[in-house]
Design goal:
Shape: elongated
CATH architecture of the largest domain: Orthogonal Bundle
Strand content: under 5%
GO cellular component, one term: cytosol
GO molecular function, one term: DNA-binding transcription factor activity
Largest sheet: none
CATH class of the largest domain: Mainly Alpha
Keywords: DNA-binding
Order of helices and strands: HHHHHHH
Number of strands: 0
Pfam family, one: HTH_3
Number of helices: 7
CATH superfamily of the largest domain: lambda repressor-like DNA-binding domains
Helix content: 55-70%
CATH topology of the largest domain: 434 Repressor (Amino-terminal Domain)
Protein name: HTH cro/C1-type domain-containing protein
Radius of gyration: 18 Å
Length: about 140
Amino acid sequence: MDKGVNQAVEAVADLGRDIGEYIRQQRNTAQISLRQLAKLAGVSNPYLSQIERGLRKPSAEILQQIAKGLRISAEALYVQAGILQERAGGAVVDAVLADHDLTERQKQVLLDVYETFRRENAMTRSAQGEHPAETEDTEE
């Protein structure tokens, strides 16, 4: 194989390890055992273990089942797996979308307000000559 093909194969392998590590971190944070998550997601224990170790790259459908078992948004897993581009807002958007106590309409309203605040703050920073990537944490 030529160098470009080798790099592409390694990049795909890295995605598998990245998504597996991300799933393991989310599982540990949720304090769910591998066996419990496998049952909740409707996949076999060995298959989930292989995903976490980066030996298997799960399909979007399997990622959706795992997300449901972890009670996180499938979108978060899709981004980690390289299926989707990360959306502005990151963790806040994920948290709103994952909240089972909110209706879809309430979630959309919250996300619209959040995005409005983000745009206003970006325009304010831009007008002050700051870089958009800077956060309020770095301001004095």
